[in-house]
Specification:
657 residues; alpha/beta; 6-stranded mixed β-sheet; 16 helices; 40% helix; elongated; Glycosyl transferase family 2 protein; transferase activity; transferase; Nucleotide-diphossugar_trans
């Protein structure tokens, strides 16, 4: 047996007496090496739940979503969102980043937490932040550095987290997200205020394209008021009690010239912490048409306006409802189909106001019952809601041009007469809705309406005395009051818990009848062909320019005006001739029958003077009529020129078939 000490060597070397000991030595050395590596890289360890495709998570061709949580409470709040996002089909992966055990939750704990739910397949990353220092800046700095590191590694298109400025770790996440968004335009941060995380379950239903545009739409609240200070305060109180998900939401109060003292004094002092507050007080009384339509004009195609009259009241969840719909239908794949949608109603309608001879009761659930659609499905309808709605920029801008042209025509030449078939709105001479309904009918536009059970609504109307409302004994009607949504059932109250795809939404016409999109577009084209010389656009082509609706045969109209002038002139000449003949005949009779006495002579002279004065009056009246006809003709010519100058420029790429 060889000696354990080799004395023939120049140095002593210890040798294991048996191969088993050499194996043990190698195992110990390997273990020490692994421990050293783990220790050196302990700041960022990863628990891989879907290991077969782990390497794909760093493939730039994939869209990655990161959700950062700090502690178990945040994890449980955000878990329904990120687990549902992981189930969506599409070219994306979901990563969950935890701040570490010292912050209340490590990666392995989150893995166990996710295992409680079925099909929550996500990647988990642990920042392992050390929180032994009492200095908040140390934690903030560590979280900031590690978040920047993981963002640069995973390259997410969306980062979601619960914003809490009292949380030192989340302040680090917020700083990292802000820094990244400033240098990477393809990066979107969704910072949900911690107190409203439970109100954002709808995020899980949004496609990736919509999530990327979370911060793109901008919303403005436009309140229209005049002399109902108590009503205005009720509306503002409901606005202040609503949830805006951390968004900046400006408020504008539009007061007509005849605003009362109470209203004018209340507005400057009202509290608004959610964005800029503006006050507009008209110098000249504009009436309801001007007050509503001029209250909002979009700055771009991502600028949305809530039109709110002061006799309505809002649910705390009205903003969530509007943003959910707009993100899904305007910024997701459905945006190609929703180009005729002009807004989202907050009011869950229970009346159809356009039927003749008066409005009728309506229940969308009963109407949808016999159809293929779910009874509680939201639906598209051609009726514009004036009791709380958000309108879309392209179509509201088109309406401005259309309304300007229509009002000028009505006040001047009356070249065009537009009546929507069988609609009560044709009688509403002083209503902005009359003209909006004309445009909606001609184009086949639609508005999306809520349809929650028992008429639960995002807005209600108190139907108080106003321009178009006249009450008996001053008592408001309660038929238009609806129960406001006081508990968040935005998602829960929808069929399947989500908004239907746009193609699966039912469509109703102005009278609450279920129809197809082609049907309402064809109806609009039929009226279009009757009132305009320009042909309608193709069903898939929209320019949001009303010029094609206002094409008039100017030659025919001028010819008609000239004919009228000629007819008037002929009638004038004919009347002059007849009067002259009549007067000559009367004079001849007077000569033949001269009075025999003075009294008869005086009567005759008086009678003659009277007839002469009548003759002069007739000539003056005829002259006046003639002048008016000529003046009217010239006014029509000028109006045609103004109408041409007033219209917006035509899209050069537009082809009219």
């Amino acid at each position: 047996m060889p000696s354990s000490l080799d004395k023939s060597s120049s140095s002593f070397r210890y040798q294991f007496p048996h191969p088993t000991w050499r194996t043990l030595r190698n195992f110990v050395l390997l273990s020490l090496t692994l421990v050293t590596i783990i220790f050196l890289n302990n700041k960022h360890k990863e628990i891989i739940i879907r290991s077969p495709i782990y390497q794909e998570s760093y493939n730039n061709n994939l869209n990655n979503i990161i959700v950062i949580v700090d502690g178990e409470q945040q994890a449980r709040s955000l878990q329904p969102i990120y687990c549902q996002l992981s189930k969506q089909s599409g070219n994306k992966l979901v990563h969950i980043v935890v701040t570490g055990k010292d912050r209340g939750l490590c990666g392995s704990q989150l893995k166990n937490l996710n295992s409680e739910l079925s099909e929550c397949s996500v990647f988990v990353h642990d920042l392992n932040i050390r929180d032994s220092s009492p200095d908040d800046d140390t934690v903030l700095s560590s979280v900031f550095k590690e978040t920047i590191h993981i963002i640069n590694k995973i390259k997410p298109v969306v980062l979601i987290y619960a914003k809490d400025l009292n949380n030192k770790a989340i302040r680090g996440v917020d700083a990292a997200a802000l820094t990244t968004s400033q240098i990477n335009e393809n990066f979107t941060k969704i910072a949900i205020p911690i107190e409203y995380v439970s109100n954002t379950k709808f995020i899980a239903d949004l496609p990736l394209e919509a999530l990327k545009n979370w911060n793109t739409p901008k919303f403005h609240l436009q309140v229209v008021t005049q002399n109902r200070a108590a009503s205005l305060k009720r509306l503002v109180d409901s606005l202040n009690s609503s949830i805006y998900l951390g968004d900046n939401v400006p408020l504008t109060i539009n007061i007509d010239e005849d605003g009362d003292e109470k209203t004018v004094k209340y507005v400057p002092n009202l509290y608004w912490p959610f964005g800029k507050k503006d006050i507009r007080h008209r110098l000249v009384q504009g009436g309801l048409i001007a007050a509503v339509v001029e209250s909002y004009y979009p700055t771009n195609d991502n600028d949305y306006g809530f039109i709110l009259e002061d006799d309505i009241e809002l649910s705390p969840f009205f903003y969530i409802w509007a943003k959910y719909n707009i993100l899904k239908y305007r910024y997701g794949p459905d945006r190609i189909l929703s180009n005729r949608m002009f807004g989202v109603s907050l009011y869950n309608s229970k009346h159809i106001e356009l039927t003749l001879p008066k409005h009728t009761k309506f229940n969308a659930a009963l109407t949808l019952g016999p159809t293929k659609f779910n009874r509680q499905s939201p639906y598209l309808c051609q009726i514009p809601s004036s009791w709380g709605s958000v309108v879309f920029p392209e179509i509201w801008r088109e309406f401005h041009y259309y309304l300007t042209a229509r009002l000028k025509d009505i006040e001047g030449p009356n070249l065009q007469e537009i009546n929507v078939p069988d609609s009560r709105s044709n009688r509403w001479h002083n209503s902005w809705k009359r003209f909006f309904i004309e445009l909606i009918y001609l184009r086949g536009y639609v508005m999306l309406y809520p349809n929650y059970k028992n008429f639960v609504s995002l807005s209600t109307n108190h139907h108080e005395e106003g321009v178009h409302v006249h009450l008996k004994n001053g008592t408001p009607k309660k038929g238009f009051l609806l129960p406001l949504m006081n508990k968040d059932i935005i998602s829960e109250g929808l069929p399947g818990g989500v908004l239907p795809d746009y193609r699966n939404l039912p469509i109703m016409d102005l009278f609450g009848r279920v129809v197809s999109l082609k049907k309402i577009v064809d109806r609009g084209h039929d009226l279009h062909n009757k009132i305009s010389l320009c042909p309608p656009n193709d069903i898939a082509t929209l320019t949001y320019n009303p010029k094609d609706l206002l094409c008039i045969d100017k030659t025919k109209k001028i010819s008609d005006s000239e004919n009228v002038s000629e007819i008037v002139s002929e009638n004038v000449n004919k009347n002059n001739n007849e009067n002259n003949n009549r007067n000559d005949k009367e004079n001849n009779n007077d000569d033949e029958n001269k009075p025999l006495d003075k009294s008869k002579s005086k009567k005759s002279k008086k009678h003659k003077n009277s007839k002469n004065s009548k003759k002069i009056k007739n000539k003056l009246q005829i002259s006046k009529t003639n002048n008016e006809a000529i003046a009217s003709f010239h006014r029509r010519i000028k109006s045609i020129k103004r109408l041409k100058q007033m219209m917006p420029p035509v899209n050069p790429n537009l082809k009219l078939d």
